[in-house]
Amino acid sequence: MIGKVDDAFFRQAILPHTGAGDPEVVVGPRMGVDAAVLKIGEEYLAVAEDPIFPGPTTSPDDFGWITVHIGASDVAVMGIKPRFMTYSLLLPPETPEDYIAGLVRSISTYARELGITIVGGHTGFYGAVTIPTIGGITVWGRGREVVTPAGAQVGDAVIITKGAAIEAAALVACELGEKLLAAGISPDLVARAKKRLREMSVVAEAGIAVEVGGVHAMHDATEGGLERGLWEVAEASGVGLRIERARVPVPADIRAVCDYIGLNPYEVISEGTLVLTCAPEKADAMLASFKEAGIEAAVIGRVVPAGAGRAWLEDDGREEQLLPPAVDRFWEVFFNALALKNDTRTPAEVALCRELGQAVRELEEANVAALIPEIGANLAYCLLEAKELRDIAAIPGRLLRFKGRVATLGEPEMGCSHHMGGTILVVREFFPQARCVINLRNKPRVRQACADLGYKVVSMPVPPDYRQTDDDFYTDLRRTMAACRELPDVIEIPDRINLERLILVLGRNPGEIVSKVTSLAARVAELG
User: Fold this and answer.
1) Nearest-angstrom CA–CA distance, 90 and 106
2) Over pLDDT 90: what percentage of the chain?
3) Which is it for strands 436-441 and 133-143: parallel, antiparallel or unpaired?
4) Are 75 and 48 in contact (CB under 8 A)?
């Protein structure tokens, strides 16, 4: 898992362990709350902490800006002006001094712009650190009033700023700009997405909201994106939501980036998107003040009683339950940015490998080890218009049985499986809808399970003297396919000298293969 720990682990393993209690704590640790709040005399003290790390190509100046604004945003959404900060800068041993000096200078510059005083911290070199990292930035401020994500009231208008997926689009565009351009996305859209790096802050709009007044709850849509941010406000406040999806701004540059990389813009990290609820009579003034400051904003829904539930309202009148995404998939993309940057695959090939990789993980989790042959299994998946082996993705090191579990060697690659690739190409000569194949063990219980599940099974002929070259195999496979009136589920491979008996399971996509194989494994287990 990459990113924040999940809710269940947080509640079970972290939340119960917060040291001594203190009556000055007004807002303590909670999932999705941006900062802690203490009551000190007549004032509230808001304090927040975050780790910050750069992208592979993030400049020291951008890194400094992000560090200050992400830290300051967590205090600003509590309705309190950020005033002080400390930070811990952890560095690889060989980090150049000019890089360090530039980063420190930038942090100071952007802190000064926000009126924040740096009062301490730590800087050091460590062998365990592989990239310059802000191990923690702590920002705090104090004020007479406080706003929390738990203050939403029934009847409130729900407003967001800028749109969905601000951070995700910015970081992907900065790291993979050339890939986006090569995929046909216009230079203007790529440039606009890159500029959103400096929109990853809600300090300005949070301050405006407090000035306008009537704001009851504020939250920065970080990990899990807009969908999780909305859910967290509703969960903390004990209210329901009605959110009109068509009203949620998803600018063209963000849409293009998310479509290219296969991300849902509503469910990925969106630092820079302020989620707020306010008294409905203040909504117009709030939007006008944001517009005057050059900040895009929109009313996207309303707060309703908890019993009414939390839902997306679709254009066609349907309601879809609003739930926090189980995982923010952005991190998977972000931490593979360097590999993707030098990747010569087309977007279609990247998507093909990603889908195949997900299927492999599902087979590992289902533990279909009983079906994995001694020689290992391979799962191949081809492009819609596949004509040759390079159009087919597979696992270079196969799926293997290891200590009663399924183990995988390598991530999906294009053109790396001669046998499974050649097999699916032959099958497609007769059934072009077939795009996926896996080889599995052929044992009596496996054959019985296929019959019990009603799978369509065809058998290839036994070759003379149980000997067969690759060319002879493909010739016999063509004859077998030519005799089929519909795509079979399973092909029995003939018995051959010194070769393990196998079956091939065919499907239209990896999901269909996973369904067939997991059902087969379950039935084999039942048969004992």
Assistant:
1) 16
2) 74
3) unpaired
4) yes
d(CA 116, CA 484): 74
> Please, what is the angle between helix 283-292 and helix 203-212, to 10°?
140
pLDDT (tens digit per residue) in 384-433: 989 999 999 999 888 898 888 998 878 899 999 889 999 999 999 999 99
> What residue type is 251 in one-letter code?
P
- What number of other Cβ atoms are within 10 A of residue 374's Cβ? 8
In single-letter form, the type of residue at position 367 comes to N
Question: For residues 406 and 363, is the Cβ–Cβ distance under 8 A?
Answer: yes
Q: What percentage of the chain reaches a pLDDT higher than 70?
A: 97
pLDDT in tens, 280-326: 999 999 999 999 999 999 999 999 999 999 999 998 889 999 999 88
| Max CA distance (Å), the chain | 94
| Radius of gyration from C-alpha coordinates of the chain | 28
Does pTM surpass 0.70?
no
The tokens of 488 are what?
A: 């079979």
Query: What's the whole-number average pLDDT of the chain?
Result: 92
DSSP string computed for 177-204:
HHHHHHTT--HHHHHHHHHGGGG---HH
Q: 280: which 2 tokens?
A: 């409905």
The C-alpha atoms of residue 205 and residue 271 are separated, in whole angstroms, by 13
* List of residues 6+ apart from 298 with CB closer than 8 A: 159, 160, 247, 248, 249, 287
* pLDDT at 351 exceeding the cut of 90: no
**Cα 478 from Cα 311, distance rounded (Å):** 52
Closest to 65 in 3D by CA, of 173, 169, 196: 196
Token look-up 């300051």 returns: 72
User: What angle (nearest 5°) sits at the alpha carbon of residue 178, between those of residues 175 and 184?
Assistant: 125
Q: Report the distance separating Cα 469 and Cα 474, nearest Å.
A: 9
Which of the four pLDDT bands, split at 50, 70 and 90, describes residue 498? low
**Which residue's entry shows tokens 């196998």?**
502
CA angle 356, 469, 460 (to 5 degrees): 70
Decide: 136 and 103 in contact? Cβ < 8 Å: no
CB 242 within 8 A of CB 308: yes
Query: Which tens digits make up the pLDDT trace of 15-73?
Result: 888 889 888 888 888 776 778 999 999 999 999 999 998 888 899 999 999 999 999 99
Which residue reads 């065809």 in tokens?
458
